[in-house]
Amino acid sequence: MASQAREEESDDGMDEFMEKFKKVKYQNAFSESNWEEEFDKVPMFMKSAPEDIDPVKHPDLACLQSIIHDDERPPEEQAKSLKDEGNEYFKEKKYQKAIVSYTAGLKKNSADSDLNAILYTNRAAAHFHLGNMRSSLNDATAARKLKPGHLKAINRGAQCCMELHNYADALLWCDEGLRVQPTDKKLQELRATADKQKRAAERDARRAKTKEKKQQNQRGALLAAIKERGIKLLKPEATRHRDSENEHEDGDKGSTAAMEKLSLDGLGSQEATGAQVYLDDQGTLHWPVLFLYPEHRQTDFISAFCENSSFIDHIAVMFGEELPPWDTDKKYQPQNLQLFFEDHKKGHLYEVTLETSLLDVLKHPGCFVKEGSPSFIILVKGSSFCRQFLSGKKVHRLK
């Protein structure tokens, strides 16, 4: 009877409470106008955690965070909580923060190797999404070491190798994973792609090696032909200065190296003119040649001047029926022209007859090919500019 009385008393109290609840509004109830905003403040129902957890604004979250980072708990529990925290950041695509959480979990030195393997694997995924392929590969390797046969880590390692264009290692990762799970479609597809890319890379490497060897042979033959003719190449000023320093430091050894490098550096005309001397199948050299007209500050360029051709062969075409527009006085006709080259060592000028071949000029002791392109000055014979230009200069006639 006493028990029944207590139950009835309790029922009466609940009825009274419910009646009061109908009449008096609950003071801490959600507002009808902003209930969604208030709802989002409850940790269980939050769509995303705030960037900074203020204990005053978010006491519940601060409490949860203190539980996660409670150093009095076992390392395994702390590491698991940090793993979960990292996973939440990962879901929100906050990969950098996820990495921080996973790293903090690993620093707990948990004795649970499986948990540590998961932390490494998850951190590898975060690094992968940030484009940190080396770091991702290192983490995948660490996870595999802790947990051999861990497919997620193996998949990630294979993907990293593919991104790093290391197709041989990607195949090794794939083969390891397929030994664990032979029917894994992702690994099968990844392996097929890695094998295809590896074959293509090897083919391209062979082609590049063959091309490089061919170019080296052509360059060697070209330099041999230039040296055989006794043609002197003048290297750029910066290179000459550098080699003079080497000669000073190394003595005779440096001098020998400088002479060998002279021929190599002197062929750098392609950057300046877009053309370079070449040796044809018949063993004949073809040079890019520059003509200078100082009176009018004009130039002409012949990309492939055969060494056996004479200057008149080209000048007759350049100043034939159609004269250049800048020659308003019609003075630049073959019979009126004089051709000179400069000795870049002594500063002297040498006059060349137009019937002379390019090879005869290039073999002359005073002729130096600068930056891979022989250059020649053309003046109108007997003109006032010609006399003024030649005044004070030492002029030799090519023999």
From TrEMBL:
InterPro entries: Csn1/TTC4_wheel, TPR-like_helical_dom_sf, TPR_rpt, WH2_dom. Pfam families: Wheel. Residues 218-236 form the WH2 domain. This is WH2 domain-containing protein. Residues 192-221, 234-255 are annotated as: Disordered. GO terms for biological process: protein folding. Keywords: Repeat, TPR repeat. GO terms for molecular function: actin binding; Hsp70 protein binding; Hsp90 protein binding. It comes from the Eukaryota. Residues 192-207, 234-253 have a biased composition (Basic and acidic residues). Belongs to the TTC4 family. GO terms for cellular component: cytosol; nucleus.
